[in-house]
Amino acid sequence: MIPVSEQKNIIDLNPIFKGDAKNIDFSFEFSPECMDEDVNFKKPVSVTGKAYEKAAASRNSENLVMAEFILRGEYTALCSRCLEEVPVNFEYTAEYAVAPELQNEEESSVMLAPAGILDIGEAADALFFMNLPSKHLCKEDCKGICQGCGKSLNTEKCTCSGKNINPRLAVLKKLLDKQEN
């Protein structure tokens, strides 16, 4: 296993591009730069993977290197409805084609490794955020919190009278009351 640079999770792919090696295994931990204040990591995310030669170079083409890796970790987030803390375990996998430069502009799915150097930490960070759910729920049928008294409707019964009705909806309340009578 070739060590990954401690500072930036950098992998030198030149041994594969030059034909000196067939694959490079890597493993490191990192903490995603989370912009969501509700997501908290108790420990760094584990990244393991390998880069390997997919196809040998011919006279007219570069070597095709593939990088595959797995992110594993755990974080806590707040439930979007009741604000309870929710533990989340995750495992995301990815595989990317890597090249030192683009041969043509249509290769948008290729990850660039300028001068044969790949920032796998940046790719891991992007993979995490692409898979981060837009909202977290403590359970599928979470009832949330009462807008009137603020109690969690999952654990307590609402004690407010329900009279705090938005004035714009008061007319609808009157219609519902008429229907019930």
Overview of this structure, please?
The structure is a single chain. The protein is elongated and about 85 Å long. The strands form 2 sheets. Strands 2, 3, 4, 5, 6 and 7 form a 6-stranded mixed sheet that branches. The protein has helices at residues 14-17, 120-131, 170-180, and strands spanning 10-12, 23-30, 40-41, 45-55, 64-78, 85-99, 110-112, 117-119. Strand 4 (45-55) and strand 5 (64-78) form a beta hairpin. The chain folds into 2 domains: 10-131; 143-181, no CATH class. The chain has 3 helices and 8 strands. With 181 residues, it is an alpha+beta fold. Residues 1-6 have low confidence and may be disordered. Helix content is 15%, strand content 33%.
Based on DSSP secondary structure assignment, what is the total number of beta strands? 8
Unreliable stretches covering 5 or more consecutive residues: 1-6
Helix content: 10-25%
Strand content: 25-35%
Shape: elongated
Order of helices and strands: EHEEEEEEEHH
Average predicted local confidence, pLDDT:
83
Q: How does the major sheet shape up? A: 6 strands, mixed
Distance between the termini: 77 Å
Helix/strand-derived category reads alpha+beta
Total helix count? Answer: 3
Radius of gyration: 26 Å
Q: What is the count of structural domains?
A: 2
